[in-house]
Write the structure tokens for this entry.
Amino acid sequence: QLQASGGGLVQAGDALRLSCAASGRTFSISVMAWFRQAPGKEREFVSGISLSGISIDYADSVKDRFTISRGNAKNTIYLQVNSLKPEDTAVYYCASRSRLPISKAPVGYAYWGRGTQVTVSS
């Protein structure tokens, strides 16, 4: 089970820190990732991290503003989102997969959390 939190309503230029905690069969997780889905758009990859912390990947649209990290508890990841733009408005989902490498395709992830809403006003 994945639980995402930390979203909210912010203004352009603000920052947020999203969190995702996995519970249950966490021993089978190799990669955790963030996706987002804006209204009327397809779900898109934002960032992913191997639970070893060795492998990290970002979407080109966010790599200069977002930072993914792993918590001290291996089953927790964070996404620091800075310099938010209105186009970052979306529901942000946490997902996990049981093997490497980090996949940018939603179909590559078996487990999903419910998502946390991020709304950026201009």
Summary: The mean pLDDT is 94. DSSP finds no helices and eleven strands in the chain.
